[in-house]
């Protein structure tokens, strides 16, 4: 298949590209600079320019691009960039695909479990309504911008990503220095639920969504076994062979990170992958102990 990927140099995108190439598919890259080969297509999100003719002949599009939500305190300007990168990018892509004579059969346009907001111990699936807060607002707007593609008859899937676990980057990579130094610990009460997914499973979920015509709309891309922050801390510390005796009080997190602390570190989302499991997807790493043990245990050395 010819599969176009936006955000192809990020954590998820690079893993997906490697997997596709290894299985004899042809990954194409959406880039902002002048293309350097026939496997690159240029777009300019800010200017709203993308030549629709460059998109002809695609089998699928995977849209991963967006400003990193965890790379700094949420100032008004950063929040604007986070929102605009997702809204404008998805709008440009979906409208361009909708104008094609022969559009791809599927658009995988990622979203996030931030859609559900802070919901405590409530069990959440794809039928659950949106929450409140900045991330929930971003996710609603983000998903809505794919509507022109769906109206054109393209099957649109929105994998709502939980925290992606990989030793090569992402949120887990930022936690490791403190945990390896023996300074890791729960955040706040530790009772907030964390919905997560192993990187290998996320790649598998994206391919599953491309290949299974029954999947459309929101699809929770999370392990079937969410854990509390306290349990996550305990399992990670054990995998690293370190203690986890310290705790970061909620007020300290808020003092350091402001709104980002409330929505990323202290919010609780107990999300299940109901649609994925019903469609027959089998997780490679459904449990946190196995995932972190594989990444950091003795067998990983």
Please characterize this protein's 3D structure.
- By secondary structure, the chain is α/β, with parallel strands linked by helices.
- The chain has one domain (2-293): NAD(P)-binding Rossmann-like Domain (Rossmann fold), CATH 3.40.50.720.
- It is 39% helix and 19% strand.
- The protein has 11 helices and 16 strands.
- The protein has helices at residues 11-22, 76-98, 134-144, 147-151, 170-180, 199-211, 229-240, 250-257, 259-265, 274-278, 288-296; strands spanning 2-6, 26-31, 40-42, 60-63, 106-109, 111-112, 123-124, 155-161, 163-165, 185-187, 193-194, 196-198, 217-221, 227-228, 246-248, 270-271.
- Strands 1, 2, 3, 4, 5, 6, 8 and 13 form an 8-stranded parallel β-sheet that branches. The protein has a two-stranded parallel ribbon with strand order 7-16. Strands 9-12 form a two-stranded parallel sheet.
- α1 (11-22) links the parallel β1 (2-6) and β2.
- α2 packs parallel to α3 and α7 runs parallel beside α11.
- The longest helix is centred in the first third of the chain and has 23 residues, at 76-98.
- The mean pLDDT is 94.
